[in-house]
């Protein structure tokens, strides 16, 4: 069985590497090609690579694990928020950002903000770049965690060793193909992910005795089959039955926290870059439809897999962290080994389709924005790309440390990183695209406020409990928005050049 798993995984990994090699010729022509694919992405690749890079291993491990552990509510409200956020982001942000980024000549998100406000000294550029490193590195670490858990569960090998293997693989093909390589491979991986989810879901329901049997089992668990209560597993088994405590009521605070995940999309660089890279804004309507349908099907399937998994294996996992292996267990127990390996490649697809994006965006934040933007402005494209590869190695090493640290719950790390990126860039992205009077000082103040609030709220304020236990993305997003508005009013007009750019983009 291990040999068949290995064959499936190796075939899949070889296909991804070949894509990187195929794209390497174009990717290495210039920094514009390496970091943004020369703005040549088609609507299907743009849509599906954006969503695959966004969801990561969290989709096939973290979300099913959360549903297995706490039931419908905890995962359900988050999924609803993400689905709405996906649709609105493609609807209101994509077209304006495509136009604006081309107008100001930006190929990274920090560069967009810097050029959008015509800054003379690269303060905004540096702050944005550093915040990307701060929040994207643990995000990349969560992807390596998913790979480590996958390989460790399949082959019974050391988790830490498998994290290293996954990191080397992701690093290899990101080196080769750059943004174009990762986008094309992410398109393929999005297809693998949704096929894996739908296949495992269908087989799981059949093995559990049908939808009616799954629903009946869920209703027998206190608080499990409801959007208004959350199950409370004790982690104990008595006479072969998993034990649950009194279900927790899902208050408005919890619902707001789940829905707030949708706000994060407005600040996610891996998604925003696909808006900038599509070859024509006219194709964004098709991209929006493809992306939304993919997200709704994938999120729904992932949640139901967790619920079905509880019916099939009620006492298998006794901790929140171990429950994130339910997709792997269902795949390997219901499918022939060779096919199970291919389905589990869906987890690998989810993890590497995100980690490559996170690593490349983090590396570009330093090489393109800080190295070339500040330290060595006359650096050639070739020099910048070599610096990028060196930084890729350094960031990957740090991501490996995150993955092998004490926190082994993928959902928790993604939760923090998502809030950080969403609150740092989301409010400013919306203001920069929709309010002409946004000023440069307000941009700096708003970005810093969002990032700092997430850190302070997560590590200190949330510990107070009660209303302060709300997901940090929501208060940070609101505070950042207030600061941008107030500071813009105080500092007056943004400047003639900035207003001219805005008018040119809006009247195009």
The CATH homologous superfamily corresponds to Sodium/glucose cotransporter
Portion of residues in helices?
over 70%
Using the coordinates above, name the CATH class: Mainly Alpha
| Overall morphology | globular
Please compute the radius of gyration using only Cα atoms: 22 Å
The neighbouring-strand order within the major sheet is 1-4
Distinct helical segment count:
19
Distance between the termini: 59 Å
Report the mean per-residue pLDDT as an integer. Answer: 87
Number of strands: 4
CATH architecture name: Up-down Bundle
CATH topology: Sodium/glucose cotransporter
Strand content: under 5%
Secondary-structure element string: HHHHHHHHHEEEEHHHHHHHHHH
Secondary structure category: mainly alpha
Summarize the biggest pleated sheet: 2 strands, antiparallel
Number of domains: 1
Low-confidence stretches: none
Q: What report would you give on this structure?
A:
By secondary structure, this protein is mostly helical. It has a single domain, classed as Up-down Bundle (Sodium/glucose cotransporter), CATH 1.20.1730.10. Helix content is 74%, strand content 3%. The protein contains 19 helices and four strands. A two-stranded antiparallel sheet has the order 1-4. Strands 2-3 form a two-stranded antiparallel sheet. A hairpin with a 2-residue loop joins β2 and β3. α8 crosses α14 and α8 crosses α15. It is globular. The N and C termini lie far apart (59 Å). The model has no long low-confidence stretch (mean pLDDT 87).
């Amino acid at each position: 069985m291990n040999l068949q798993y290995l064959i499936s995984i190796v075939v899949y990994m070889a296909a991804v590497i070949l894509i990187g090699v195929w794209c390497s010729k174009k990717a290495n022509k210039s920094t514009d090609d390496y970091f943004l694919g020369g703005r040549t992405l088609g609507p299907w690749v743009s849509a599906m690579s954006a969503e695959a890079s966004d969801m990561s291993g969290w989709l096939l491990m973290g979300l099913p694990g959360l549903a297995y552990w706490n039931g419908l509510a905890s995962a359900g409200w988050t999924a609803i928020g993400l689905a709405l956020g996906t649709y609105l982001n493609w609807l209101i942000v994509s077209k304006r950002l495509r136009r604006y980024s081309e107008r100001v000549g930006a190929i990274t998100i920090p560069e967009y903000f810097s050029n959008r406000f015509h800054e003379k000294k690269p303060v905004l550029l540096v702050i944005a770049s550093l915040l990307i490193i701060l929040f994207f590195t643990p995000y990349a670490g969560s992807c390596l965690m998913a790979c480590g858990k996958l390989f460790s569960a399949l082959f019974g090998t050391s988790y830490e060793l498998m994290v290293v293997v996954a990191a080397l693989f992701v690093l290899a093909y990101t080196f080769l193909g750059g943004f174009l390589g990762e986008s094309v491979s992410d398109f393929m991986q999005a297809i693998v992910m949704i096929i894996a989810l739908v296949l495992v879901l269908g087989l799981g329901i059949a093995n559990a005795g049908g939808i009616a049997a799954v629903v009946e089992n869920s209703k027998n668990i206190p608080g499990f089959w409801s959007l208004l209560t959350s199950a409370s597993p004790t982690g104990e088994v008595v006479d072969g039955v998993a034990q649950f405590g009194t279900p927790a009521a899902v208050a408005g605070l919890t619902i707001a926290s789940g829905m707030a995940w949708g706000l994060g999309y407005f600040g996610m660089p891996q998604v925003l870059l696909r808006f900038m890279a599509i070859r024509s804004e006219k194709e964004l309507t098709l991209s929006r439809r493809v992306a939304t349908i993919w997200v709704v099907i994938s999120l729904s399937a992932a949640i139901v897999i967790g619920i079905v998994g509880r019916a099939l294996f009620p006492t298998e996992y006794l901790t929140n962290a171990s429950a994130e292996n339910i997709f792997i267990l269902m795949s390997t127990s219901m499918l022939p080994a060779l096919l199970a390996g291919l389905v589990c490649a869906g987890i690998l697809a989810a993890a590497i389709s995100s980690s490559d994006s996170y690593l490349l965006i983090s590396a570009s934040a330093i090489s393109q924005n800080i190295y070339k933007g500040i330290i060595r402005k006359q650096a050639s494209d070739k020099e910048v790309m070599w610096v990028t590869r060196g930084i890729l190695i350094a960031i990957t090493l740090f991501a490996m440390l995150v993955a092998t640290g004490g926190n082994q719950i993928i959902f928790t790390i993604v939760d923090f990183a998502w809030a950080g990126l969403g609150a740092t860039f989301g409010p400013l992205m919306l203001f920069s695209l929709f309010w002409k009077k946004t000023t440069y000082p307000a941009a700096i103040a708003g970005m810093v406020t969002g990032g700092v609030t997430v850190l302070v709220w997560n590590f200190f304020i949330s510990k107070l409990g009660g209303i302060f236990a709300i997901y940090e993305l929501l208060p940070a997003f609101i505070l950042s928005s207030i600061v941008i508005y107030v500071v813009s009013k105080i500092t007056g007009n943004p400047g003639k050049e900035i207003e001219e750019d805005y008018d040119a983009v809006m009247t195009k």
